[in-house]
Amino acid sequence: MGLTPAFSKRLLTFIQDAMPLRLKEVHFVKEPTLFNVVWNMFKPFIREKLKKRIFFHGKKMSSLHQYLAPTHLPSDYGGELPAIDYSGADWFPVLDELTPHIKNWNSFGFVKNP
């Protein structure tokens, strides 16, 4: 719901044209059904090279295991490592500590004229 079309387009532009790293593969797992609708809306804006590097696995972890060995994955993804705790109680305080740094980073750039 938070991904507006304008933001999504900006994100795609960043990923394809400005991100300072190279994506070799992008794997989606356990994606909700609604994701397919969103994917089909943005698929035309994704370059063919990136499309070939995007993989959807749904709930089929055996499909993911063709790319990533279970020895390197947590049990949440059919792997052999301990399960991951995704609770916000652990990561929110870290993000909260970083807020001043993020505000500082966002202050760089061009000044917008009113």
UniProtKB/TrEMBL annotation:
PROSITE patterns: CRAL_TRIO
A single GO cellular-component term on record: membrane
UniProt cross-references to InterPro entries, sorted A to Z: CRAL-TRIO_dom, CRAL-TRIO_dom_sf
Pfam families referenced in this protein's UniProt entry, alphabetically: CRAL_TRIO (PF00650)
Entries under SUPFAM superfamilies matching the protein: CRAL/TRIO domain (SSF52087)
Domain CRAL-TRIO: 1-85
GO molecular function: phosphatidylinositol bisphosphate binding
Protein name stated in the entry: Clavesin-1
Species of provenance: Eumeta variegata (Bagworm moth)
Source lineage: Eukaryota, Metazoa, Ecdysozoa, Arthropoda, Hexapoda
